[in-house]
Records
---
Amino acid sequence: MRYQLYYWPHIQGRGEYVRLALEEAGAAYTDVARTGNGTSTMMKMMETAKGTPPFAPPFLKAGNLVIGQTANILLYLGARHGLAPKAEAARLWVHQLQLTITDFVLEVHDTHHPLGPSLYYEEQKAPAKKRTAEFWKSRVPKYLDYFEELLAAGGGGYVTGRRLTYVDLSLFQIVEGLRYAFPKRMKAFERNIPALVELHDRVAARPNIKAYLASERRIAFNEDGIFRRYKALDV
C-alpha cells in the first residue's frame, strides 16, 4: 500500500509526527500537498468528502480509509508497522501517551498564540510572554518530568522498554521543537531530563530517521509552525 498524507506543505506542524512514523517504518507514501496542485486536492477532499469527512489536516488515505487526527493516524500505523505493542492493553497505553503529547503540543502552540490563532503573534505579545513564563515554570516540568519518569522506570531505552514505538518518535520531535523555539530555556532545562535527551539522540541515530532528517523531505522549523522562535519569549 502507498499511503497519501494530507497536510500543509510548508510546515512540520502536527503532520510531522505522522511523517516520522512513516519514515521509520520505511512505508511508501506521498506528501500530497507538497506535489503539484496537492493543496487544492487536500482542500477539495475536506469539502466534498462524504460519510466520515476529516475535520482538518493531517489526515491519511490508506486504501479506502481516510483517517484524521494525529493520534488516531498513529494508532492505525503503529499496529500495522510494528510501532506499537500487539497486546490490546499495551497498545491503548501507547495511544494514551500520544494523546498526552497532543495536549502538550497545544500548550506549546499557545505560548505564542495565547489569545487564539485568529490574531497575529504581534497582536498578543504581552499575553504570549506571560503565558510562556507559566509554560516553563509549571507546564514543561509537569509533562516532561512525567515522560522522564516513564523512561527511567522502563529501563530499556524506550518509553515502553526495549522496542521503539511511535511515542518515542513523537518525544524526539518534542525535544527538537523545544530546542528550536526556546534554545536558551531548553538548554538550561535539559539537565533535568537526561533520559529524554538520550532518547532523542537514540531516535536521531536510527538509520531511517537519520536519512529522513538529512533529506529534503524534512521541512525546516519556521515561524509558521507550532514551534516558533521568538527572541522575546526565550529569556
Note: The first helix runs from residue 15 to 25.
---
Amino acid sequence: MQNNVLSSLKEHENKLLTIWSQLLLENGSTDGITEEEESKEFTSLLLDALRISNGNNQESEEFEKVHDLLIGISSSRAKRGFSPRENAQYLISFKEAASQILSELERDPVKLYDANLILGSVIDNMTIMTFEAYMKGREDVISRQIDEISEISTPVIRVWDGVVALPIIGTLDSSRTQVVMENLLQQIVDTGSSIAILDISGVPAVDSLVAQHLIKTVSATRLMGAECIISGIRPEIAQTVVHLGIDLTGIITKASLASALQTAFDMLQLTVVKRK
C-alpha cells in the first residue's frame, strides 16, 4: 500500500531532527555531539527508505542499511552506559516526533491512521533489534571486564632470580584455575624459574574443589620442571583441609609468603644477610 504522507517526511527532515533532539533531551536519552551525528545519519537513511518503499518492504536494501546503522548505534550506546529503557526511548522519541509532523501534513484521519500504522510497525521492529544489539553490546563489555579482572587478579610476580610468586585473591573455580595455570606456566617459561609460590592468603575459604584446583596447578608446575610452594595457609584453612581429608602430601605448604620465600632461598642454596 502506497502512502505518500510517509514519503513527504523526507522534505521535513531538519524539522524532524529538531523535534526528536528536543524529546531526547527532555527524556535524558542523549549524550550530546556523538548522539547528534548518529541521529542525523539514522534519520537520513530511514527517511530515504520510507520514501522509496513507503515502509511496505522492510527487507529491502534501503532498510538493510538502516538496520546495520541502528545495530551499531545500539551497541555503541550500550557501551557508553545507556540503560535498555533509554535505548528503547531513542526510537520511541523518533516515532513521536515523526507522528507530530505527520499530523501537521495530513488532515485525512484515514490516511493519517494508515501512515502511523506503517511507521509504528517499522519502529517497533527496529526497537526489537535495538534490544538484541544492546544485549550483544553489554555482553561484549562484560566479557572484556571479565578478561581485565582476570588479568589483574592473577598477576605472576618475579620476586627473585629463579622464583616467581602468584598471589590468588578470591574464589578459585575451573575457568579461573585455567587462567592461573596458563599465566603461571608461561611466566615459568619466560623467566626460566625453578620455584613457583602460590599464595592463597586472599582466598576466603578452601573446600575440596578449590583444593583440587590447587593440586592440579602444582602438578602442572612440576611437569614444567619447577617446584611449587603453597603459602598463606591460615589456621582455619588448615583445619578445613584436615576435616575434608584432603591429601596435600608431597606439597610444600607455608603459613606466610615470607616463610615460603625463605624456603625458596634454602632450596636455591641462597642466603640473604643484612648489610653491616
Note: The longest helix spans residues 109-153.
